[in-house]
Amino acid sequence: MKFQAASSIAAVLAALALPAHADSYKLPRNVILEEECGSCHMVFPPQMLHADSWRAMMGDLARHFGSDASLDEQRRIAITDFLVAHSGGRKTGATRDARGKPLLRISETERFIKKHREISAATWQRASIKSPANCGACHTRAAAGDYDDDTIRIPK
Ligand code: HEC
Ligand code: HEC
Predict the structure, then answer these.
(1) Global pTM value
(2) Full domain range(s) for residue 81
């Protein structure tokens, strides 16, 4: 019996040790999201922000990073529900700023910073990249929710 318990624990540990690239950022089709949140930039992966961050962002769309992204109430609620349902929960690491407000940028979350720590400040500033929010500059299949290592190409 002891042996059996040990081997099932080993199986659980093996499952937990799956490599990070097994994470999926694919989404079910959502036309409202694509229309409203994919017009100025690509649709960012909701898995990379905490639900509290999505709620905060969706509650203040008139002041969205210097742009007015406001929506009618029905669409706003539908998109909020979808983003929250696919949000990253605790997996995103620290998700609040020093004053306790939810972070609104994926690129400021602990998880993003950890995953991108090898990229230098000079690389981020290249004309071909411009901003960490420009995911598709390096993740060539970002639009399809594919962030696998073998699809990354950092432009000169
Ligand atoms: C300057 C190029 C660049 C930009 C822009 C960029 N990334 Fe990355 N990203 C990378 C590199 C390089 C890695 C690290 C791959 C590794 O460690 O093997 C990475 C890793 C990742 C990973 C982890 C993949 C894995 O398998 O663990 C995710 C998820 C990710 N990026 C999402 C994003 C998102 C979302 C954005 C936009 C908000 C973004 N990235 C912007 C270059 C970039
Ligand atoms: C009117 C244009 C516009 C619309 C519509 C819009 N956005 Fe944005 N969004 C922006 C701009 C501008 C930025 C800042 C980009 C930068 O810093 O490079 C931004 C940034 C973001 C970021 C932060 C990316 C990061 O990690 O730095 C998220 C997340 C985001 N938008 C989500 C959304 C969602 C969700 C919707 C739909 C409800 C939406 N956006 C609709 C203009 C828009």
Answers:
(1) 0.88
(2) 26-106
